[in-house]
From TrEMBL, chain A:
SUPFAM superfamilies in the cross-refs: Ferritin-like (SSF47240)
Cross-referenced InterPro entries: Aromatic_CoA_ox/epox, Ferritin-like, Ferritin-like_SF, PaaA, PaaA_PaaC
Designated name of the protein: 1,2-phenylacetyl-CoA epoxidase subunit A
A GO CC term assigned to this protein in UniProt: cytosol
From TrEMBL, chain B:
Organism: Hymenobacter crusticola
Domain of life assignment: Bacteria
Entry protein name: 1,2-phenylacetyl-CoA epoxidase subunit B
InterPro entries: PaaB, PaaB_sf
Amino acid sequence: METAELTQEELFQQRIDADQRIEPKDWMPEAYRKTLIRQISQHAHSEIVGMLPEGNWITRAPSLKRKSILLAKVQDEAGHGLYLYSAAETLGASRDQMLADLHAGKAKYSSIFNYPTLSWADIGCVGWLVDGAAILNQVPLCRTSYGPYARAMVRVCKEESFHQRQGFEIMQTLCEGAPEQKAMAQEALNRWWWPTLMMFGPKDDESPNTARSMQWRIKRFTNDELRQKFVDMMVPQAEFLGLTVPDAKAKWNETKKGYDFGDVNWEEFWQVVNGNGLCNHDRLQARVDAWEEGAWVREAALAHAKKRAARV
Amino acid sequence: MDQKEWPLWEVFIRSKQGLDHKHVGSLHAADAAMAIQNARDVYTRRMEGVSIWVVESRHIHASNPDDAAAFFDPANDKVYRHPTFYEVPDSIKHM
C-alpha cells in the first residue's frame, strides 16, 4: 500500500516537472490540495477585501471620469475574487466555508488592505504600487501547475494591467499639477512604499514553505526575487514622476544590475498580519456586515427559485 | 449565519458568432436566469462574449482521469486515420 502511494506521488511530481497541468479530478497529494486551497482562497479574500479601501473613494472621486474608472476597477476586483473562489471550489472547498473562515478571522488576506486610503493620491498609489506588486506576483502564476488556478490568473492578469496604468495616470496627473497636488502624491508614496514591499511576504530564509511550493510549481519565484524585481521596476518610475521613494538606501548597484534597498520593518509586517494593523477590524467588520445584511437576499432568491421550479 | 449555498453553475461562452461555446469557469446562482446574469457580469465585462450557456454543475458527467490511458488507447495506434500516413506521388499536385 505504501509503495503504491509513493509511486503515485512520484508520478505526480514527474508530471509537474514536465510542466503538465494538474486538473481537478486528477490524483494529487493531500498537502498539495490543502496548500492550494489556502493559497487560492487567501488570494480570493484579498481581491474581495481589496475592494474596501478603493470603495472608500468612489463617492469622492474628483471627476465623473475618475469615478467611472474606479467603479470599473472595483467591479473587476469582485470578478477576480469570484474567479478565484471558483478555482478553489474545484479542489473541494466550499464557498460558504471559505467565507466563514474569512469572517471568523481564521483565513488571511493580503495585509496591504489593512492600511487606510486617506487622500485621492492613495487611490493612485493603490493602482500604481499595490496592483503593480500584485501583477509581479500574478504573472508567473499564469503558468502555475494547477489548471483552474492558472486559467483564472490569465484572466486576472489581462484585467490587472488597466488597474496599474490608471493608478500611474492618477499619480502623473497629480505630479504635473499644483505643488500641493504633487506634495499629496509624495505623501501617499511615503506611506505606501514600505507596506507594498511587505506584500511579497517574509524574507526567503523565513519563508519555510517556499521550497515545497516551488517544487510543486504553485509558486515560481521567491519572495525576495519578486521584491527585488519590484524595486528595480518602481524606482525609475518614481523618478519619472519626480517623486522620491522613502528609502535613503535605495541606490542603483552596477555590479548586481539592480537597486540596493533598505530593510523592511518586519515587526510592523507581523503586527498587521496578526490583526493589529490600522484597519484590520474595520475591514473584517465590513465583510461580516455585508454577509449578514445580505442573508435575506440569498434566502429569498433561493425560496423564489424553489417555488418556480415546483410550479413547472 | 446562513450556510445554505446557491447551486454551482458551469459557464460556457461563445466569444463571437461562428465559434463554439467554451467553458470559462463557474459561479453560484439561485436559478438559471440569475446564473446567466451573473455570468454576464463576471465573465464578459470586456465584450468577451455574444452568447452564454449555463449548466448546473451537478448535471455534468465526466470521464475518469485515472482511466484516461486505457480509455483513449483505441485511437493511439491508428495512424492511418491521418492524411500524413499516405504517400502521394510528387506529380499529383493537389489532393
